[in-house]
Amino acid sequence: MIFSTFFGVQPAPGAARASALLGIFVLSAAFAQDYPVRPLRMLAPEPGGGNEVAGRIIAQALVDGLGQQVVIENRGGAAGAIAGEIVAKAQPDGYTVLYYGSSIWLLPLLRRGVPFDPVRDFAPVSLATRAPFFLFVHPSLPAKNVRELVALAKAQPGKLNYGSAGSGSATHLSAELFKLVAGVNIERVPYKGSGLAATALAAGEIQMLFGSASLGLANAKSGRVRVLGVGAAQPSPLAPDVPTMAAAGLPGYEAASLSGMFAPAKTPAHLIRRLNQEIVRAMARPDVKERFLNAAIEAIGSTPEEFGAVVKADMAKWGRVIQAAGIHD
Fold first, then answer.
1. Which pLDDT band holds residue 56 (cuts at 50, 70, 90)?
2. Three-state SS for 297?
3. Quick one: 35-131+257-325 is in which CATH superfamily?
4. CATH H-level, domain 134-230: superfamily
5. Which of 79, 91, 100, 269 is deepest in the core (most CB within 10 A)?
6. What is the pLDDT of residues 186-230, one digit of tens each?
7. What is the spatial distance between Cα 288 and Cα 298, in angstroms, rounded to a whole number?
8. Beta carbons of 245 and 238 less than 8 angstroms apart
């Protein structure tokens, strides 16, 4: 009717429907062009971690694409519960977004009373980064590859150990997935942080560690640890010579730290598309990819629908691991 009123002509029924659709398209495009008109607020993890570094790279890319400042608000308290609650309750106007790792959507599986539902309360914008987990072992361990390690663990149940950060951390869950997929029993040695676990592995205090490239590849190059495989479907550009866990003898094992951007639920689709467009465009830039690789992270991008599917599949997968390992708060 907007189209017909403008021209002062009453269209035929079929033309009226086409005109209405055209009018909706024109209005949506106009609204998209008006966004954003003020700075965006981006909730992100506390300073110092890999996701916080990645968040700053993405924020700058959004500034370049949107032409507005992105104010980063670091809220890492309660394992992301605070940041998640803020975004879940924010106005769905495209001006408040959440950039976080997979801990944000796994948190309700690990803790009671989490004040948000990652599927119900968030609108996926785009998957942004992936940091595949590598299997590192101390050189004193006689196993030279994954097959030998599994055989050794089966021959000596409960004798081998691995280090990890806190209960439910990525280093913990990835090791429990290994136990589940390989059908082995290895003991956990907890540390206050993944960096301390990596130091302990290099010193020979523990035998195994599942962690990101930043935790062990430098020590692997110096010979202080040995890397046996990477938990990814394809070899990682971070270490292209390291075989995947499947190729090394353990099909079905994949573990990675993922991160992405969300908006509050009910954020209009055209705003989600605009944010997604800028993130995907940024992730494809060679300079951005290089900055991420220098931080031991892979830059990727996705549609909102793909990201939503990843979140649901990730929750189902790690939910089984959490249940099997009896991890709870």
1. confident
2. coil
3. Bordetella uptake gene, domain 1 (3.40.190.150)
4. Periplasmic binding protein-like II (3.40.190.10)
5. 100
6. 999 999 999 999 999 999 999 999 999 999 999 999 999 999 999
7. 10
8. no
